[in-house]
Amino acid sequence: MVSNLLATLVFLASFYATEVAAVPYTGTGCAAVHVIAGRASTEAPGPGIIGALVTQVQQQSSQTVSTSSVDYPATLTDYASSSAQGTAATKTLLTNQVNRCPKQKIVLVGYSQGAHIIGDAIAGGGGGLLGATTSPVSAIVAIVQMGDPRRTRRASYNLGTATGLLREGMFPRLTSQEYGATLQPRIQNYCDFGDTFCDSGLDTAVHLTYLNRYQTPAANFILTQIGG
């Protein structure tokens, strides 16, 4: 498992170097919607390539949409430590945002390890969990994950060509770490057949290209969840 991660490190780093930055919210006070982005492994600080999805939502929404990014190592070489730090950072970022803007609608998006950490922040894992009934979690109206290493085959919110198949992610979520029933309809988790990380397959190219296939459907889902 670790050897597979290391073998793709250089390839991921070169691919993710072409990230798209989200359009910043330049107003004062609290925007109607706030999107928190978790970047993929080896990407430079910021939203990473999932920022293209954030940008599309900002450009197409009729509401004000602000955004922030989880500050964490996003490394493959010490994945357990990196993901635990990312989970803790996501919890802090989410909690602070909800405390600052309690009426704001929150969206979480994450790619690869970024999908891993936003999931663990909400449902549990290496860094604990917030709890389904806490104020920060109740503010969440949408979650989009792409290439999630913690994907399980049993989840009702799974999308993509790996849906319903026997394989799971490299670190599948335990039943005790599942999202609450209220939150599950607000989630889309994209994984395609053969993905190295979310389907335990051998196709890294599949893992790197979710936005090519699912960016617009994911944006439409978020826009519906936030109310346009």
Shape: globular
Sheet with the most strands, sense and barrel status: 6 strands, parallel
Strand content: 5-15%
The number of helical runs is 8
Structural class: alpha/beta
Would you count the extended β strands for me? 6
For the largest beta sheet, what order do the strands appear in spatially?
2-1-3-4-6-5
The radius of gyration computed from the alpha-carbon positions, rounded to a whole number of angstroms, is 16 Å
- SSE string: HHEHEHEHHEEEHH
Determine the N-to-C terminus distance.
41 Å
- Write down the overall mean pLDDT: 87
- Oligomeric organization of the protein chains: single chain
- The helix content, as a percent range, equals 25-40%
Low-confidence stretches: 1-7, 17-23
Question: Gist?
Answer:
Helix content is 36%, strand content 14%.
